[in-house]
Design goal:
Elements: H1 2-8, H2 10-28, H3 35-43, H4 45-50, H5 58-68, E1 74-78, H6 85-93, E2 100-106, H7 109-122, E3 126-130, E4 141-145, E5 159-163, H8 173-177, E6 189-191, E7 202-204
Parallel strand pairs: 1-2, 2-3
Antiparallel strand pairs: 3-4, 4-5, 6-7
Length: 208
């Protein structure tokens, strides 16, 4: 990701480097940084309000995380995650020596991407899916975050889209060998051959 950004857009590469540096500095002081959430609120206020998006203040997220903090291994879920701010607060309070899984979802695609990036840069293991939590429809996209860091901790980070798959569906040999049947007409009018004694009569054939 960084190599591509450096080759295609040097300014973007510098911004990403600064972002990583700021997150690292914040984590060294025991905190988390929701850079994308703060920028999104300021830059797209009209879009956010139209979707009914009102991000929870960091102080409230920290308070809720402190109340629900899980000292043992556990899973944290937020079905309207936004940029993942509430789960970032939960990660901040969690015991880093234990295994924690963070399950996030949101109806807004941009919010899901921001949340996935926040998970990735903070070293959080989990998944992010774009889905309507009320209807429980099939997710439009699912990201797996930092799979590479479990079960053995590594200095690497990852984001993998598991749904929908980019691969084209495979076709078995049997499917390719069998020609498709031409659609049959629902009804057909057949005229009997002319007969000297009986006049021709229209006949309707039944296909059922």
């Amino acid at each position: 990701m960084f190599l591509d950004a450096k080759e295609k857009d040097e300014d973007m590469f510098l911004l990403m480097s600064d972002w990583f540096a700021e997150v690292t500095k914040t984590m060294e002081n025991g905190g988390t940084l929701d850079f994308f959430g703060e920028m999104y609120e300021e830059a797209w206020k009209g879009k956010a309000s139209a979707l009914g998006q009102f991000y929870t203040p960091e102080s409230i997220c920290s308070l809720m995380a402190g109340i629900t903090a899980n000292e043992a291994n556990g899973t944290y879920n937020d079905c309207a995650c936004g940029s993942g701010r509430t789960l970032l607060a939960a990660f901040e309070k969690a015991d880093k020596k234990k295994f924690h899984y963070f399950d996030a979802g949101d109806i807004d695609y941009i919010s899901c991407k921001m949340c996935a990036l926040n998970f990735m840069v903070h070293g959080m293991i989990g998944e992010v899916k774009q889905q309507d939590a009320l209807t429980q429809e099939t997710p439009h996209v699912i990201y797996k975050i930092n799979e590479i860091r479990y079960p053995f901790p590594t200095p690497l980070y990852s984001i993998r889209r598991v749904y929908p798959s980019k691969e084209k569906p495979t076709v078995t040999p049997n499917e390719t060998e069998q020609p498709k049947e031409k659609p049959k007409p629902r009804f057909a009018n057949v005229t009997a051959k002319k007969d000297k004694q009986k006049p021709a009569q229209p006949v309707q054939l039944s296909l059922f």
